[in-house]
Design brief:
With about 280 residues, the chain is of the alpha/beta class. It has helices at about 1-20, 40-55, 65-70, 85-95, 135-165, 175-225, 230-265; strands at about 25-30, 30-35, 60, 95-105, 110-120, 125-135. The chain has 7 helices and 6 strands, in the order αββαβααβββααα.
């Protein structure tokens, strides 16, 4: 029995792990540099990729693995800035989504735009942007982590919406203090009334035991008197008193419990006649 409970508990704990949807396989294409140095943009692209890996929402292909696969396919990523080209990269990498975008600079303003593209449909699912007025290091420290977080959160929101789709939303009814008090009192009354019923059943059982002891005492006395045995009569009298004390204990246990429950529920208990 204990083994069954342990196995059942383990299955309940492990079930969510098996039922969880696997994270999407995605890749991050090189961001397009507009007014920025190619080297800086390469560093910022790697930063975005690494931040997504750390967040763990997606299964992100590493840069080394990505370059190896594209090299085997003899695909040149340089100059691949269009959405169609990004989809082609995603197909070669066998991922469901690919991140592409650009980093632009105008005077001291850095503008970063990224979009998550569905490789199968070729459609942009989400798009985010960040503007930084300052040094390129601020883009590295502020803009890229922020974009990674936005992409990650969009996946979580989409997953939650998928789970809730087709389900009826439960309406939460706010109860007033008076309604809460009435509900609490009703629960107390139902619980205590149930306990009272159980206790009354016990009291009736104890009453039956009391009657049994009474009958046994009368039988012993009558038998002793018929035999004219005084010693036996005295013995039966002692037995009678002992049995009466035991019967009173039964009666007290039954009605003590029932009375306490009845007081709590404020419902009262039916009268049960027990001879003294």
């Amino acid at each position: 029995m204990h083994i069954y409970r342990i196995v059942s508990t383990l299955l309940l704990l492990l079930l969510p792990l098996f039922s969880q949807e696997k994270p999407k396989n995605i890749a991050v294409a090189d961001l397009d540099a507009i007014g920025e140095s190619e080297q800086d943009v390469s560093v910022l692209t790697n930063k975005l990729r690494n931040d997504l890996i750390l967040l763990g929402t997606y299964n992100v292909i590493e840069r080394g693995d990505m370059d190896k696969i594209l090299a085997e396919q003899k695909f040149q990523q340089t100059g691949c800035t269009s959405q169609e080209c990004a989809v082609e990269i995603g197909q070669l990498l066998n991922v469901s989504h690919i991140v592409s975008g650009s980093i632009s600079k105008l005077s001291t303003l850095h503008y970063v735009n990224v979009k998550l593209i569905n490789v199968q449909t070729g459609q942009v699912e989400v798009s985010f942007e960040e503007k930084i007025d300052g040094d390129i290091t601020q883009v590295f420290e502020i803009a890229m982590p922020s974009l990674a977080a936005k992409l990650s959160n969009s996946a979580k929101i989409a997953k939650q919406a998928k789970v809730k789709k087709g389900t009826t939303k439960k309406q939460h009814v706010q109860l007033s203090p008076e309604q809460k008090k009435k509900r609490r009192n009703l629960i107390i009354k139902i619980t205590s009334a149930s306990a009272t019923a159980v206790a009354l059943g016990g009291a009736l059982y104890y009453n039956h035991k009391f009657d049994s002891y009474q009958n046994e005492m009368v039988t012993l006395q009558n038998k002793a008197l018929a035999e004219g045995n005084g010693a036996r009569y005295n013995s039966s009298f002692e037995n009678k008193e002992a049995l009466r004390d035991k019967a009173r204990i039964y009666r007290g246990l039954g009605y003590g419990t029932a009375g306490a429950c009845a007081t709590l529920s404020e419902t009262g208990i039916p009268h049960v006649s027990i001879s003294a």
